[in-house]
Predict the 3D structure of the following.
Amino acid sequence: MRTPLSSLTLLEPRTLSDALRFLQEGGPPAPLAGGTDIYVGLEFGLETRKRFLNLWELAELRGIRLRKGLLSLGALTTYTDLIRSPLVRKRLPILIEAARLVGGVQIQNRGTIGGNIANASPAGDTLPVLAVAEAIVVLRSLDGERMIPFNAFYTGYKKTAMRPDEIIASIEIPALPGRPWFRKVGTRAAQAISKVVMAAVVGEQPRIAIGSVAPTVVRCPRTEGVLASGGPLEEAELTLLEEIRPIDDLRSTAEYRGRVCVNLLRSCFANRRR
């Protein structure tokens, strides 16, 4: 049943400082940016929260820039912003590939990178990219700034290391040490939730991360180690299956996901260069 709007409260901060104060007053409201997930929850009566904090107008959370050698993305950077950015194209082109596969143009115009991270869905298309890029999530609260490595940010299904009084301010991404690679597998070419989504870096320091196969996005250090040591691809494939332990759910089976992950690994690393 659709949630009646009259039962909801929307807080409208003018500045980031105002927003952080709201988070410490009267029970923390739910941060709201593009709203592409929250609106769906309200439409179908699945969203139980009643107080929301509108971040959309906060200029402090926008912008794509280089800062101290890192690619810095404001939390309110939209998928369209990513797609259009020459800096992202130069530094992390697979993030643009992932952004192009998120919903349709309307979703790309409203959905944000910070929202995709905070939503904590294991099927989030940008999350494996951020995992192999070894991004850093920058959190802000009235107490100051806190930085958490992306690969330590998720603590379980739909759970993060973020405190209720914190919001994501930006994402900082170092340069990649090799050739980036990205693939999404779904029921159709676009506007589909992924069955498997994989990002990788091919080179002397291989990196692999996979989404939509477990409660959180999965980084695969053991498989990376096999590849880095020059081990056979067959050994890497067996190691990958042990690491990801794919799940059954409404969208696919563990067997199918395992087979797809092996095929993607082979496609990415069959002609690897060390």
User: Anything to note?
Assistant: The longest helix spans residues 254-269. The mean pLDDT is 91. The first strand starts at residue 9 and ends at 11.
